[in-house]
Amino acid sequence: MLAEHGYHVLAVDLPGHGRSAPLDRYSSAALAAAVVAAVPASPALAIGHSLGGLVLAHAVGELRPELAVYEDPAWILSPDPVVADSFRRQKNWTLEDLEREQPRWSERSRRHKLDALAAWDPRIVDHLGTFTLAPVDEAVVPSLLVLTDPSRLIPPDRAEELVQRGFDVRVVAGAGHVVHFDDPAGFVAALASRGVVGNDHVGNTFRDKLELPPLP
Predict the structure, then answer these.
(1) Of 22, 34, 55, 196, most Cβ neighbours within 10 A?
(2) Which one-letter DSSP state was computed for residue 215?
(3) Spatial contact of 181 and 155, defined as CB atoms under 8 Å apart
(4) What residues of the chain score a pLDDT lower than 70?
(5) What integer pLDDT is reported at residue 110 of this predicted model?
(6) Is the separation of the CB atoms in 106 and 181 below 8 Å?
(7) Which residues pair with 171 in a beta bridge?
(8) What is the pLDDT of residues 100-148, one digit of tens each?
(9) How far apart are alpha carbons 168 and 194 in whole angstroms?
(10) Nearest CA among 181, 206, 186, 50 for reference residue 103
(11) How far apart are CA 39 and CA 90, in angstroms?
């Protein structure tokens, strides 16, 4: 969809993800350095989801995109071992598991997730407790937060605080953690609110979700 609007899209595999090699030890600094090395400076747009949102927050000062988009970012990482174990178990998920856990996703999205899990190094979970928190005292570049409804990572009071720090916040009603799979049109509407894509990709229903003015 972004390519249709003239963007040259680079989908970066973080170390330990996709086709990127694993690391002996993972850290937020190491992942951010990998992104900065892979992406040309000052891109028009940079999008980070979940852990990718944490990594983008660390890389954004050097990367300097025209707009940074954080999709339900994991700016706080839980030290709870139960949470860590739940991530590790996903490595062995089947298509049936994803159908149960993510009923709103398309078949294509579920298979994409299975491919990603197959290539994922679960050892990264062992190192998350040493990751440094996101440096988000201020929005160092124009920044959009696209949040789930509700977000367990960025609760409403925190979202209000981030607005005061210069972040633009959009909540996609009813969406889960992976907004772009749960509600693709809602995610596009959030991007359209900042001019990333044109209004021809946005229906009135999704604009209303984001409390935007109706299409003319």
Answers:
(1) 55
(2) P
(3) no
(4) 199-216
(5) 97
(6) yes
(7) 147
(8) 999 999 999 999 999 999 999 999 999 998 999 999 999 999 999 999 9
(9) 9
(10) 181
(11) 29
